[in-house]
């Protein structure tokens, strides 16, 4: 069984990965707003890589749960980590839609 400190560190790892991803997505929208669509696409890619790191850590927790290696408690920090993951997924969808909107707007202005 994992101890609470190990679980907390795992949760902070998830939060770090997805927080980085969320920042990348927000920055991607800013780059698209400036008309730098190549940079926006690269930031989305980097955000996806960071998000996948958090997803992999989260999947490890789920595997431990399935194998009976966790006590099944969901401390606040785990709930926060999962909330950050969900919010970041939403931010990615919004970012890609906003980038597409900026592309269309630029095409109309041209």
Strand content: under 5%
End-to-end Cα distance: 61 Å
- Quaternary arrangement of the chains shown? single chain
Largest sheet: none
Low-pLDDT stretches are none
Helix content: over 70%
Extended strand count: 0
Q: What is the overall pLDDT average?
A: 93
Q: SSE order in H/E notation?
A: HHH
Q: Give the structural class.
A: mainly alpha
Number of helices: 3
The outline comes out as elongated
Our Rg estimate from Cα atoms comes to 17 Å
Q: Secondary-structure map with pairings?
A:
Blueprint: H1 4-33, H2 37-66, H3 76-109
Helix pairs in contact: 1-2, 1-3, 2-3
Please explain how this structure is put together.
The protein contains 3 helices and no strands. It has helices at residues 4-33, 37-66, 76-109. Helix 1 runs antiparallel to helix 2.
Give me a quick take on this structure:
85% of the residues lie in helices and 0% in strands.
Keywords:
mainly alpha, single chain, 3 helices, 110 residues
């Amino acid at each position: 069984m994992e101890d609470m400190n190990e679980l907390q560190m795992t949760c902070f790892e998830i939060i770090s990965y997805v927080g980085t991803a969320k920042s990348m997505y927000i920055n991607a929208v800013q780059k698209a707003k400036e008309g730098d669509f190549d940079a926006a696409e690269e930031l989305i890619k980097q955000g996806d890589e960071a998000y996948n790191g958090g997803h992999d850590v989260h999947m490890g927790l789920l595997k431990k749960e399935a194998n009976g290696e966790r006590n099944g408690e969901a401390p606040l920090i785990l709930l926060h980590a999962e909330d950050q993951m969900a919010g970041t997924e939403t931010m990615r969808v919004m970012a890609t839609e906003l980038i597409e909107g900026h592309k269309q707007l630029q095409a109309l202005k041209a």
